Amino acid sequence: MLEIPFYPIMATHSRRTPAAERDCEILRDVIHTFISSGEPVSSRTVAKLEHHGLSSASIRNVMADLEDRGLLAQPHKSAGRVPTASGYHFYIDSLMPGAEISALNRRLIEGELQGVLSDVEKLMEVVTHLLTHLSNQIGIVVTPPVGETVLKAIDFIKHSDRRALCVMVSVGGLVDNRVIETLHEMSREELVRISNYLTEKCGGLTLRQIRDKLLGLMAEERAELDEMLADAVDLAQQALGADDGPGLLIEGTEVVLGQPELSDIPRVRRLVETFTDKADLVRMLNQLIAGQGVRVIIGEESDLTSDLDFSLVATTYGSREHVLGSLGIFGPSRMDYQKVVPLVSFLGRTLGQTLLVSEDYVRED
Fold first, then answer.
1. Nearest-CA neighbor of 285 among 309, 315, 308?
2. Is the pLDDT assigned to residue 206 strictly greater than 90?
3. Mean pLDDT of the chain, nearest integer
């Protein structure tokens, strides 16, 4: 998690005084109420919850103390108070009850993913949809680079005079078909020879490694094979695609447009602009959430979240040795962290385990 200010009075459950416990309870109530209503929370509103045994005036004094500690803020002199980024972080790290995904959502996720395990592209789309559907926020998934897919076999089938159908099978059993152009007309026998050659030489390598390997083989093999190798390199480059960087899937922008934070046109425009340059967005995401575990970035803590007063709850997926991508939830800072944090954590672990078990993205360095 991001580092947050250390508050000695409220630091740990075991060392809290009764007064500190009271402060924590009031902070928790303010956060829950603000998440639910979107309106600054007054001491009278907290007093109506009737489990503190304190008057409105006493609660107001506690809220003033919490403001002095940087956990709450007062937008206007006569308004109630709202949580600050530090207040949210303290709540997430110390006050949030059992951050576990519900059994119902766990079953829903496992059921949705079960039907798309053999299709990585569809798997990524389903994960993005689940992030949005289960949080009512914007779901974001940074997909693995195409070049990390591990090849099992490749087959070129004559399609027409100067066209061939390429059938590529990954180690995990995923199949990709595409029609490509050949440099010159090629016989069925020539295509079979190239298919066998590429499968023998390149099976078990990532697509990026294959492209590098073929260029090296051009200089190493015997001269009489150069023409065949030239054709193999050309076909492989078309079949395996460019060395694409990570992709980006986004869903749910329309979901947050109905929230109070997006009630003015300038803010809506800023939200749209945030997703205009996807390459820049991927770069920012990678910088913000490098490393293991769920990261929570709130408001002014990053350029991505500051202009909108949004939060990003995100994690990487894959393994400690081989990070494949990242996923997260993006939305107004008053999101339901008790629900969002375990959701992001569970989907990150599940997606990473699914891809690594399938071996479609196991890289041999």
1. 315
2. no
3. 84
